Amino acid sequence: MEIEYDLLVVKLVNFLFYAGMACFMPYKAIYQKSIGLTPSQNGLIQALEKLITLFSPPIVGAISDKFLLHKSSMIICILLSVGFTFPMYFVPKVNNGLNHNVDCYVTNTTIVCSNSFNFTEGCNINENVDATYLLKCWDNYNNSAAITCEEPTPTVVNNQTADAIQLKCLEETTEQDTYGLTFMWVVILTIFYAFFTNPVQPLIDASTMNMLGENRMQDYGKQRLWGSVGFGSVALLVGFVTDVFTKSKSTEEKDYLFSFIGALVFGVLTSIVCYKLKVPKHNPPSILSGLSTLVKDPRIIAFLCIVMVGGYNLGVKYAFVFWYVESLPGCNQTILGLAILTGCLTEVPMFFVSGWIAGKIGYNAILVFGLIFASLRCFLYTVLTSAWQLLLVEALHGLSFALPMAAMCSYAATLAPEGMTATLIGLTQGVYWGLGNMLGALLGGVLYRLYSPIVMFRITALIGVVAAMFYSISMLCLRNHNSGLQVEEGSEAEREACNIKSDEV
């Protein structure tokens, strides 16, 4: 069997690029949580990052096309993306402001704190030393607070004298909603990091398609699966090293230093290997111009709608699943890394057989079932009782992400009118990773803050199921409509043939 060395380079670039992404991207949300940002702030930052996906590839592409620097622009983007990632490690933490007096009382198993802090969802007495109670509390938003309480004295609270204890407490840490220095630094670095990162992935996909050619586009998944291998294996390694490094410092606060170091190292390696990659001319489509050209085809409109909902679902997951799971019992970085590895291991076979499955059931069926499995995954997040159970849920990742992703890219190439393949592929990527992910992070953050993570995930699941149903119905209607048109055209042709014969007679 002849070895295709060009495709070996594609596989290696996919492995290294996604390995670098695995060091930082999955942990970015919980890193932001560790430095004191809130769910609302995290949602805004993640949404801003995805918004940049809509316009940074066209800008970078236009510049590289003008100066004929396609490969150079790709390498520069990779280096600058890690160049703006690494400084995030040095962003100062939020000053949570101490010395907030909080009045608390204890009844059997419930601790209620006044002064607008109501931790009725649960509090644990971590320690009782020298008549000082150290409490760890959390509310229904999974916001936590460490509270130190002085010597309790019996008192009457809500007509309860035997079990009620009045505590004078000092709140040491709590979530602050101020948009201060920490938030602004993260926003600024995220803007530049996202601007230079977003053009790289479409370029790798375009290079892959260019090397495969039109007759082998169904083999895209076999190249992309190496990205999943790199992402999963390195994410687990980074999670494990983070746990070990944190324990060596004898502190409970996670230190994400190796996430940033890993992103830097793999970014440099990717840029070196890219010298061997055949990068085609970008021709990056403008989202608006692409829509104006393709909007006349109802199949493409329906396709982009289900792509957007799929992106919304994934945006909620990336922005908040680790933020939520970190509050569950038994959570550590190794478990989070194992969850990523589990998801990536399920991606590999799905990418490999995606072409074969598409040939059996079609692209539309894959998109529908993929969205249903993604919705099921979101719902299952809400019934987790321990962090290790996340590994079981992430086993759905191959069916909910990898299979529809491969189908999405191949179906876009099939749907595109002549001469517009690159435009529709780029438009699909922008709608999925940009618009869809942005809405997921933004609206997810609002739902997380106003209600709870449980409500947020369940609403996301419901949206996915409803969208899958509507897409199935719309495809059925379009198929019937097209069949009717063909029958009508056939009947008209038959009538014309009959008229000709009548005239001849």
Structure described in brief:
The protein is α+β, with helices and mostly antiparallel strands and 505 residues long. It has 17 helices and seven strands.
Describe the structure.
This protein has 505 residues and is α+β, with helices and mostly antiparallel strands. It has 17 helices and 7 strands. It has helices spanning 5-24, 28-34, 39-51, 56-67, 70-85, 181-197, 200-212, 220-248, 257-273, 287-294, 298-325, 333-361, 363-381, 390-393, 397-415, 421-450, 453-504, and strands spanning 100-107, 110-113, 122-129, 132-138, 144-149, 153-154, 165-173. Strands 1, 2, 3, 4, 5, 6 and 7 form a 7-stranded antiparallel beta sheet that branches. A hairpin with a 5-residue loop joins β4 (132-138) and β5 (144-149). α1 (5-24) packs parallel to α8 (220-248) and α3 runs antiparallel to α16. The radius of gyration is 27 Å and the shape is globular. The termini are far apart. 46% of the residues are buried. Mean pLDDT is 76; it is low at 97-103, 114-133, 138-145, 150-177 and 485-505.
How would the blueprint of this fold be written?
Blueprint: H1 5-24, H2 28-34, H3 39-51, H4 56-67, H5 70-85, E1 100-107, E2 110-113, E3 122-129, E4 132-138, E5 144-149, E6 153-154, E7 165-173, H6 181-197, H7 200-212, H8 220-248, H9 257-273, H10 287-294, H11 298-325, H12 333-361, H13 363-381, H14 390-393, H15 397-415, H16 421-450, H17 453-504
Antiparallel strand pairs: 1-2, 1-7, 3-4, 4-5, 5-7, 6-7
Helix pairs in contact: 1-7, 1-8, 1-9, 2-11, 3-6, 3-11, 3-16, 5-6, 5-9, 8-9, 8-12, 10-16, 11-13, 11-15, 11-16, 11-17, 12-13, 12-15, 13-15, 13-17, 15-16, 16-17
